[in-house]
Amino acid sequence: MDDDKGTSLIFVNSSKGQIMYEKIKNQILSREVDIQSAVLFNSAAIKSVGYNPNRDSFFEELDLLEFDKLVEKYCTDTMLVRMKRIIYKTLKKVGPLNMVKRILK
After folding, report:
1. In terms of pLDDT, which residue wins out, 3 or 36?
2. How many CB atoms lie within 10 A of CB 14?
């Protein structure tokens, strides 16, 4: 499911995980898919995020700055990320994004 409103992928890797999933499955919208489809638009599920060069500085200042200020200082998106987000939202709004996703399924 791709509604940009929350969790998009859940892996159940153990019997304990299956029991927990069974307890919530009637309270959520879900569908079972093969692993290739699951990770097609969820690359973070199989590839770790790169190391952020600001990570160490962030944690050094964690107790020194208010959290809001810390986030503002270290967690702002780059211009490239902001542009990608604008393009993504525009494509989603006018339709081609959904067409591309259907083709890739």
Report:
1. 36
2. 9
The pLDDT tens digits of the residues spanning 47-78 come to 888 888 999 999 999 999 999 999 889 888 88
Give the Cα separation of 88 and 77 in Å (integer): 15
3 state SS of 73 = helix
**Residue in this structure with the two tokens 């879900």, named with its chain if needed:** 30
- The residue-averaged pLDDT of 32-37 equals 85
For 47, list phi and psi in degrees, rounded to 5: -135, 125
Phi/psi of residue 84, each to 5°?
-60, -40
Task: Tell me how far apart the alpha carbons of residues 31 and 25 are, in angstroms, rounded to a whole number.
Answer: 10
* Cβ contact 77:85 at 8 Å: yes
The Cα–Cα gap between 52 and 48 comes to: 12
Which amino acid does the sequence have at 97? L
At 89, phi and psi to the nearest 5? Answer: -65, -40
